[in-house]
Amino acid sequence: MTDLLTMMGIVKEFPGVRALDGVDLDVRAGEVHCLLGQNGAGKSTLIRVLTGAHQPDAGMIRINDEPVQLNSPTAAIQRGIAAIYQELDLVPDLTVAENIFLGHEPSRYGFSRTHEANTKARAILQGLGHAEIPTHRTVGSLPAAGQQVVSMARALSRDARLIVMDEPSAVLDPEEVSNLFRVIRGLTDRGVAVVYISHRLEEIREIGDRVTVLKDGATVATGLDARQTPTKELIQLMTGRSIEYVFPPRTEVSAAAPVVLEVVDLSRPGEFAGIGFEVRAGEILGLAGLVGSGRSEVLETVYGARRAATGFVRVDGAVLRPGRVQAAVKAGVGLAPEERKSQALLLDEAVFKNITVSTLGRFASSGFLNNRAERDAASKLAVALDVRPAGVDQPVRNLSGGNQQKVVLARWLLRDCRVLLLDEPTRGVDVGARSEIYALIRELASNGVAIVLVSSEVPEVLGLSDRVVVLREGRAVHTGPAQEIDEHQVLDLVMEGSAR
Ligand SMILES: Nc1ncnc2c1ncn2[C@@H]1O[C@H](COP(=O)(O)OP(=O)(O)OP(=O)(O)O)[C@@H](O)[C@H]1O
């Protein structure tokens, strides 16, 4: 089989950083080529070079054996290269059909043009196995999975021959991931090549054909067989070490440990109803459920960012004033939200400032900030979470997406909370840092913090928590020790009644 794309010796420098240091990648028509690497390894930079957003400082790109210059995103699109990012670049207020043909609308005008666009859009969606998506609906009203399909349809409408997907599964339910994989297989059957980026290594075997691994801006392995290469070997290649991908041992939570968080009969119409649980000091409680099951809404209500219609929350025996974040914070409740990046970073400030920003009180005495103590505390966490590049003085803006995630998480781990609510703590985080994050969360619990964890990765919820609450459509359908239920049982519970 000939290569559709060959990238050779690609170099890209930013001031002070050589983000790509001679990367090679070759992709064949009709294959799913997985691109792996730790946070900061250079994956996004390589993709930006491929999609014409960055110009390489050195190296060669060939498409169908012909040398090409991808001087702009338009040039890349004309060469049949499209990318689907996690932050989808769709226009929410335009319809599905308008988004699919944005920038290259069918040429006739007036009613017939809309009609033609709808008809063509329907045909493309049908080809992707998603004829049910209404072409006249606004994109903003579709769930994340539907929006992703529209993004793919847009790529196809431009005759893309190579589609890059940057962590497409991160925002999807297990069922939606199976759908996505079906769509990807449909694309490759038609000869389209897919470059697939994910930090979920178990997916690689399921959807990948071949694998390229980047480390520190260079290719360390390319063309590996996705099904035959053991996960252990991939981790070794990515990190340069072997990581036992295990969860920290649970420490027995004594029945005498005080109940720190009590949630009683909490409801919000349309979101969740009758939710109740207790979390003791030292305990990690996991909330499992599909996107839309009410997981994040429950956390936000406990935090006071949403006001409960019924029920109440008690911390250390005292009822929190409903709908008041300040009251929750005062009682020692912290929430590390799902959308950490957009919510919380001071992009031009140094890494250490970003880590310590909500704990400055701890480093102040007689009105002066103890800069050294502040930097030391931040450095310790940055090292533990393997924030790259190392050093806490650079602006956060220069960090890769995953490293930015780690910085905000570090901020929450540094706070002295009584109750820590963690929403998707490892989203976008590489395999090396995941184990460290798990260990830090367990350590916080051992120090007496009550922790509530939300994650769409069921193995993570089961592996890290002491007890789990399974939510379906806003109701708790199961509560019990994490060790007494397995992944399949959880999936059966969350999907009961849906077409599985
Ligand atoms: N605009 C920039 N200015 C300075 N440095 C940058 C810039 N963009 C990226 N870098 C650096 O280049 C390196 C590669 O970053 P890149 O975003 O490509 O990593 P990645 O593999 O996509 O990581 P992640 O898994 O976290 O998304 C990192 O060291 C990052 O800090």
UniProtKB/TrEMBL annotation:
The keyword ATP-binding applies. GO terms for molecular function: ATP binding. PROSITE patterns: ABC_TRANSPORTER_1, ABC_TRANSPORTER_2. InterPro entries: AAA+_ATPase, ABC_carbohydrate_import_ATPase, ABC_transporter-like_ATP-bd, ABC_transporter-like_CS, P-loop_NTPase. It comes from the Bacteria. Signal peptide: none annotated. Keywords: ATP-binding, Nucleotide-binding, Repeat, Transport. The keyword Chaperone does not apply. Residues 5-241, 255-498 form the ABC transporter domain. Pfam families: ABC_tran. PANTHER family: CARBOHYDRATE TRANSPORT ATP-BINDING PROTEIN MG119-RELATED, GALACTOFURANOSE TRANSPORTER ATP-BINDING PROTEIN YTFR. This is Sugar ABC transporter ATP-binding protein.
